[in-house]
Specification:
- With about 70 residues, the protein is mainly α.
- About 65% of the residues lie in helices and about 0% in strands.
- The longest helix has 11 residues, at about 10-20.
- The mean pLDDT is about 90.
């Protein structure tokens, strides 16, 4: 499945970007309007987020959108 393989590293990328930007998990979750536990699950790659959440995380964390 092409879709899931592109998102395999998404959680780790979000976590690395969030840490590089010095944003707490709670603060990032508040910006995206999601529960911090949901963000934790995304970062731990146990949850594949919805498209709107992916797009917001890409924008806030300044990730390369073309990778996903």
């Amino acid at each position: 499945d092409v879709c899931s393989s592109d998102l395999e590293t998404f959680g780790a990328d979000v976590k690395a970007a969030r840490e590089a930007l010095n944003i707490s998990r709670r603060a990032l979750a508040e910006q995206v309007h999601i529960d911090p536990r949901y963000l934790a699950n995304i970062e731990l790659e146990q949850t594949v987020p919805s498209v709107p959440v992916v797009l917001q995380l890409i924008r806030i964390c300044k990730l390369p959108v073309e990778r996903y």
